[in-house]
Amino acid sequence: MAGEHVLVIGGGGTGAAIIHDLTRRGYRATLVERGELTAGTTGRHHGQLHSGARYAVGDRDIARECMEEVHILRKIAPQSLEMNYGLFVATNEEEAAYGDHFIAACNEATIPARDIPVEKALEMEPFLNPDITRAVQVPDGTLDAWRLPLHFFATAQAAGATVRNFTEVIGLHRAQGRVTGARVLEHATQREYDIEADFVINATGAWAGQVCALADIDVPITPAPGTMVAVKKRLNNMVLSRLHPAGDGDIIVPQRKLSIIGSTQWQTDDPDSILARHEDIEFLIRKANEMMPSFADAGFHAAWSAVRPLAGRAEGSDGRGLSRDFTCIDHGAEDGVAGLLSVTGGKATVLRAMAEKTVDTLCGILGDDIPCTTADAELLPHRAFFNPSPA
Domain 1-45+145-220+314-391 has what CATH class? Predict the structure, then answer.
């Protein structure tokens, strides 16, 4: 029977979806985040709603999961999505030839992908490079990186969950071989206090290794920053991608009145010390111009970096060889420290599925046979987090 108190560390999209799932299954739940909610990786990515097409050639299962989650998010959180589709475009004959393999892989992963005439693509996206040689349409879209997690936070809060931002975990308590809670610092008052918990879930993404170190656990994770650049005009309405295997600077995402090109990728030992590198900005603008020649003329808006929490340790220099799937680590089974789970890897599009699998793992450990119901439960509006009782 549920009723145990679960502490979730990390106020990004993964933590938001996890605390929502916990409350749906009857657990008492508290979430703490050291800064503002979504202030880490969640609030810094470019907001692509992945149909899975980008991953279809390399991993059909991940691609299929993305497509399934797009359908679910359209049901439970439509206010934070823009289903504007996507175009994979070829700028040379090699990319055009890759299209046959790409379409076949998408279809095997249940992702609708179809050729459209180049003339039609240029009509739909007039700023596209007129020299493109092929265009493939897929059901990509965009998501609001801030509002989508707030749907989950608002719904969890209304169900009795406690959400505390600017509250940093500075220690993990252990007794008899298990984690029993955390010591936290409330930044607004500089007050330290303890939170007791029957279980702790580490959902801090690229910072998961730092949290695990508080329990003397070494967790395999590769923090992989990437730079993005935005210009002051919405040049494209569909997500534009290069028709080739995933690489740097090959996606342009429309967000509100901006167009965002992303991204690059490198590794870091410190996810708190990342800056947009000048050479990356120049590279991204150059790559954007290959797809949309007027990108650089639209007016520079901003450049920033976000850290991907790649599961595992990379052997190369940038981590692109690691899977974009996620891992839920039971530290009781892996490290002999019970009462602690860590979530690493994953993507924003599959935050709900990541939460489902994580809480399934928790239920299995606790012996609770409680099914997940988050795929069918429409979420409260994001505004309800700040105004839970509107007049």
Answer: alpha beta
